[in-house]
Design a protein that fits this description.
CATH class: Mainly Alpha
Shape: globular
Order of helices and strands: HEEHHHHHEEEHHEEHHHHH
Largest sheet: 3 strands, antiparallel
EC number: 3.2.1.179
Protein name: Unsaturated glucuronyl hydrolase
Oligomer: single chain
Keywords: Glycosidase, Hydrolase
Family: Belongs to the glycosyl hydrolase 88 family.
Strand order of the largest sheet: 5-6-7
Bound molecules: glycine
Structural class: mainly alpha
InterPro entries: 6-hairpin_glycosidase_sf (IPR008928), 6hp_glycosidase-like_sf (IPR012341), Glyco_hydro_88 (IPR010905), UG_Glycosaminoglycan_Hydrolase (IPR052369)
Distance between the termini: 32 Å
């Protein structure tokens, strides 16, 4: 199936989903192929908004546009009410909603909303350990000094805020976080910790650990994919070669672990049996990360060809074996994602972020539309 046909299939599902979801937001399915819906209480609402913006950019369908705008209006209410924003995923939420609308519609109110969200994210900065606290209240005994690899995808909102305002504070903190992530989350063999703990009072490094992975020293597949994409985006903004190199190393490690159909199991260190769940969402994120990486690698880079081949192979497998291809009974695009296998939370289901990154990959490949992590030429 070619990219264009695949995008057309996603549009069939998205048009049905606009009706099925109403004003609510999908997170994951719960074993029944139907999305569980939320009302702005999660870290995931931006992905549905992002799917609508990408779908509108492709189709120019006014009904999809109206639905996308409605999501941004609801994100404004969420910020005004400071509802469920006591975590670092404000970047995911507002990059794909308010910032997306700014990028697509040049809507000034949306730009201001995205900047307001960046200010809210800055409240997670902890000046003594010099990090963005991922989860929990300030001073929390367990999480007060904890960073997680996923945060690399929240940082683009901050780099962008500096570009927009000229205020260095956002990008300076984001760049400290990216460097800390490079030094402590990425291991010498190019695998990664999901999370790392620092002493809140001294900033001293304590230990790596996991939240959703198999065990503390294992490599949670989706975390590794967040790292590939997040470091490539850090390079786009900060132009530090070590971030590009780190993205490439993480991508190589990810690809070297794959077997069978080329789609990742949920953790690279979990015993692989026929019943071991995969995480198609990690592979979709990886593809977007590699496509971003390829934008920056020089022509003669020895890894270019292998990385480009991996994009084709991974997308081929996702399209052949995981994609629902517009089937009206199925609400997601990609089957066999996993949220938290260890926590027994949607171990083999639709993940709305898997759908978002799958569509972002298709639009990058079909027409060079790169998603909403950075400003485009206007
Ligand atoms: N950022 C949370 C996750 O990837 O599940």
């Amino acid at each position: 199936m070619n990219w264009k046909t695949a995008i057309e299939h996603t549009l069939v599902t998205t048009r049905l989903n606009i009706k099925r979801f109403g004003g609510s937001f999908p997170i994951v399915s719960l074993g029944d192929g139907k999305y569980h819906l939320t009302d702005h209480t999660s870290w995931t609402e931006g992905f549905w908004s992002g799917i609508l913006w990408l779908s509108y950019e492709y189709s120019r369908d006014p009904e999809i546009h109206a639905a996308a705008i409605r999501t941004v209006d609801s994100f404004r209410k969420r910020l005004d009410a400071e509802q469920s924003l006591d975590h670092h995923d404000i970047g995911f939420l507002y990059s794909l909603s308010a910032k997306a609308r700014w990028i697509v519609d040049t809507d000034e109110d949306s730009r201001l909303l995205a900047l307001q969200a960046a200010d809210m994210l800055m409240k997670r900065w902890r000046s003594v350990p010099q990090l963005f606290q991922a989860w929990g209240p300030e001073g929390d005994v367990n999480d007060g000094g904890r960073i997680i690899i996923d945060c690399l995808m929240n940082l683009p909102l901050l780099y962008w805020a500096t570009e927009q305002t000229g205020d260095r504070r956002y990008a300076d903190c984001a760049s400290i976080q990216a460097e800390k992530s490079r030094r402590f989350l990425v291991r010498g063999d190019d695998s990664s910790y999901h999370t790392f703990y620092f002493d809140q009072l001294t900033g001293n490094a304590l230990r790596g650990g996991t939240g959703q992975g198999f065990q503390d020293g294992s490599t949670w597949t989706r975390g590794q994919a967040w790292g590939v994409y997040g470091f490539a985006l850090a390079y786009r903004y900060l132009k530090e070669p070590r971030f590009l190199e780190t993205s490439k190393r993480l991508a190589r490690y990810f690809l070297e672990q794959l077997s069978g159909d080329g789609i990742a199991y949920w953790d690279f260190d979990v015993p692989q049996e026929s019943s071991t769940p995969r995480d198609s969402s990690a592979s979709a994120i990886l593809v977007c990360g590699i496509l971003e990486l390829l934008e920056h690698l020089p022509d003669g880079d020895p890894d270019r060809e292998g990385l480009a081949g991996a994009v084709e192979k991974t997308m081929g497998s996702l399209l052949d074996r995981y994609f629902t291809a517009g089937s009206p009974a199925e609400e997601g695009f990609l089957r066999h994602g996993s949220y938290s296998v260890r926590g027994n939370s949607s171990p083999d289901d639709f993940m709305i972020w898997g759908d978002y990154f799958f569509l972002e990959a298709l639009l990058r490949l079909q027409q060079g539309v790169p998603g909403y992590w950075y400003e485009r030429e206007r």
